[in-house]
Amino acid sequence: MSGTPDLKTAGSPHRDPDDTEHSSLGHGLKQRHLSMIALGGVIGAGLFVGSGAGIAAAGPSIVVAYALSGLLVMLVMRMLGEMSAAHPASGSFSVHAERAIGPWAGFTAGWIFWTLLCVAVAVEALGAAAIVSGWLPGTPQWLWVAVFMAVFSGTNLLAVRNFGEYEFWFAALKVAAIVAFLVLGLLAVLGLLPGTESPGAANLTGRGGFLPNGAEGLVVGLLASVFAYGGLETVTIAAAESHDPVRGVAKAVRTAMWRIALFYVGSIAVVVTLIPWDDESVLSGPYAAVLEHLGIPAAAEVMNAVVLVALLSAMNANIYGASRMAYSLVARGEGPAFLGKVTGGVPRRTVLASSAFGFFAVLLSFWWPDTVFAWLLNMVGAAVLVVWGFIAVSQLITRRRLEREAPERLVVRMWLFPALTWASLAGVAAVLLLMLREGDTRTQLAFTAALTAALSVAGLVRQRRAAAGAAREGSASAPAEERR
């Protein structure tokens, strides 16, 4: 099936913003795809590698940092799940923001997230290329970047079930790796692994104690942990192309709590229990450091392989997510109309546009790594917090509207509404304030604020023009109606 969404009606202030998507996109994702995307989406390269900086800053208290940021993410996912189960849409929170707040909000949330995903694709391609070039020293990184971009662009140009299959197996490998790590680590903590002795609480209370760098170290660790929870939104985007989106979203959201607790908080707790937090090897990769400590042969290369899988999985998912977000925006009249064509149930033009932007970002990293590419990274540094803010505000408005107009759609309900929704907004605001304390994060916040402001202004201008155009059309048609 192919077609082009009705882009004229997409700008109307009275239309349903998710109506334009459902008739064109395919529905080839199965429940097993969504289940594994939800499981694997929480396990990214940021966990395996990026957590080292948080551990070095916060020491053993990094467990508290991950638990606090994980709690915030769970609340955000619950709010997003409530809205996505009630109104499944490939634009996810962008559609919800438009329905609840206005077209300008959907425009801003959608395009800032699209930019975030495209830049993430570039970073992941560079990371994956660096690993493979390390294995094959005679090959240049740009060659592997080109190969990975071509492979995953091609995958996403095919039917959506191909994306689902790739992501299913990538996620299965990541889940298997983290489960194996948790089993080995728990056995070692209990002193049941051959050749190891239980460390007890020595690494948790020694070397400066549980808070070796005080509250300041905990704050740095908290900021590092917040941005490690990437990929969770993809399942609500993918659910719109499944056979039963409501069931898929509901199941994914209801299992989010134990996934975050087990994979993130649990594995980080194993790391800081087994090895000293100030060990030099932690910064280069805490999970590899634990495997080396346990005497696992070729531990560094084993973790490199796992990180490579995580990076390729994220590339695949982010190209998919960016293309669907862009298609949703175009279908709602918030983007270039020529990108709206759908062929075989796939928005191939937005796939190509998203991949092209990602590849262009890679080129920027080669040409101007310390200027233009650094600016691009800073512009999306706090983008996920902007998105979370839109989700919380949208849910506050949408929940009351659903309770009044369609309570049967509340398949998933936010806990203790509205108290926990307000608590989530306060949590997002607190993280933004904490970002002002650190030089690097302060710069990211300034750049992201500038991008958000620019998109908001552009969205408001478009919204007012659309409203003015609708008013003119209404006044022009009035005499004709009177003549009848």
Describe the structure.
It comes from Streptomyces desertarenae. This is Amino acid permease. Keywords: Amino-acid transport, Membrane, Transmembrane, Transmembrane helix, Transport. The structure is a single chain. This protein starts with 18 loop residues before the first helix and ends with a helix. By secondary structure, it is mostly helical. It has helices at 19-22, 31-41, 45-58, 62-86, 93-100, 103-135, 141-157, 160-189, 202-205, 214-226, 234-238, 245-254, 256-274, 280-284, 286-293, 299-331, 348-367, 372-379, 383-405, 419-435, 439-483. The model is unreliable at 1-15 (pLDDT under 50). The chain has one domain (28-470): Up-down Bundle (Amino acid/polyamine transporter I).
List key phrases describing it.
484 residues, 21 helices, Amino acid/polyamine transporter I, mainly alpha, single chain, globular, transmembrane
List the helices and strands and how they pair.
Layout: H1 19-22, H2 31-41, H3 45-58, H4 62-86, H5 93-100, H6 103-135, H7 141-157, H8 160-189, H9 202-205, H10 214-226, H11 234-238, H12 245-254, H13 256-274, H14 280-284, H15 286-293, H16 299-331, H17 348-367, H18 372-379, H19 383-405, H20 419-435, H21 439-483
